[in-house]
Design goal:
Radius of gyration: 26 Å
Distance between the termini: 74 Å
Number of domains: 1
Number of helices: 12
Shape: elongated
Largest sheet: 8 strands, parallel, barrel
Strand order of the largest sheet: 1-2-3-4-5-6-7-8
């Protein structure tokens, strides 16, 4: 049975920890679900880790739909949340159109959007139309050019604003909130005040759950992991070793061998060659007569 928004709410009520992971393609979704991860985020971070952009800003709605649909095909029992990309929810009407495409074409079950007070009306409108919405506070990547990539709300006034925004998002109908790059004490305070789950990334252990980026967890980057990243493998190095081995075997002639192909009797080749040569001779004779 597929995990649902109601199921996530029950996990919070029972005090069960919630594991969430970003996912961007069909093969990854298959693996994640088999591993027991049934809360998947198709993040606009795909702009950096999948498309090679320097930020999430260039990611389009079509990009999100393409990747979300692939994940949905690979993880039929998972609750799939997809990001609404930069400036695709600047108004309630625009948000409705964007969410409709993302859910109908991208086959996700919920959408995530960034921000507090400025997006409350959008959240409330979407929820009223039956769209499950996940909030995102603290460091919001779509605003990186404005706020910088750093820990947010480190003093009393912005910390109070973040708490107020979290409570307001809950009242507007958000079913969960991502807290990114906020002090661990503040994340714990927010989590204590809310009845909906908080999902932390770089926000410490006091959140109800955690989300991590696929590529960080598996060590698919050359650069050292961020402080808040959980690294559980060095798959990038294993892939590089495997590919180098393949290339070396092709160059040396060690791969492929006859065991890697199928054979037919030599008489079949002789017959095929005779047919080809006979046809060529007949064509040449016709040309000469012409």
């Amino acid at each position: 049975m597929r995990l649902t928004v109601a199921g996530i709410a029950r996990m919070k009520a029972k005090g069960e920890r919630i594991a969430m992971l970003t996912c961007y393609d069909h093969a990854s979704a298959l693996i994640a679900e088999r591993a027991g991860l049934r809360f998947l985020l198709v993040g606009d971070s795909l702009g950096q880790v999948m498309l090679g952009h320097g930020s999430t800003i260039p990611v389009t709605l079509d990009d999100m739909i393409h990747h979300s649909a692939a994940v949905a095909r690979g993880a039929p029992e998972s609750l799939i949340v997809a990001d609404l990309p930069f400036l695709t929810y600047a108004s309630a009407d625009q948000a409705v159109l964007s969410a409709r495409r993302l859910m109908q074409e991208g086959r996700c079950h919920a959408v995530k959007l960034e921000g507090g007070a400025p997006v409350l009306g959008v959240v409330e409108h979407l929820v009223s139309l039956g769209v499950p919405v996940m909030g995102h506070l603290g460091f919001t990547p779509q605003a990186a050019n404005q706020i910088g990539v750093r820990v947010q709300a480190k003093t009393a006034a912005p910390a109070a604003e973040l708490i107020r925004d979290a409570l307001a998002l809950e009242r507007a109908g958000a079913f969960a909130i991502v807290l990114e790059l906020v002090p661990i004490e503040l994340a714990a305070e927010v989590s204590k005040r809310l009845t909906i789950p908080t999902i932390g990334i770089g926000a410490g252990p006091g959140c109800d759950g955690q989300v991590q980026v696929w590529h960080d967890v598996l060590g698919l980057h050359d650069h050292p992991p961020f402080r808040h990243a959980g690294r559980y493998g060095e798959i990038g190095k294993a892939i590089e070793t495997a590919l180098a081995g393949y290339a070396g075997d092709v160059v040396s002639g060690a791969f492929p061998t006859e065991a890697n192909g199928a054979s037919i009797d030599a008489s079949v080749i002789a017959e095929a060659a005779a047919l080809v040569d006979g046809q060529a001779s007949a064509s040449a004779l016709v040309d000469d007569r012409a």
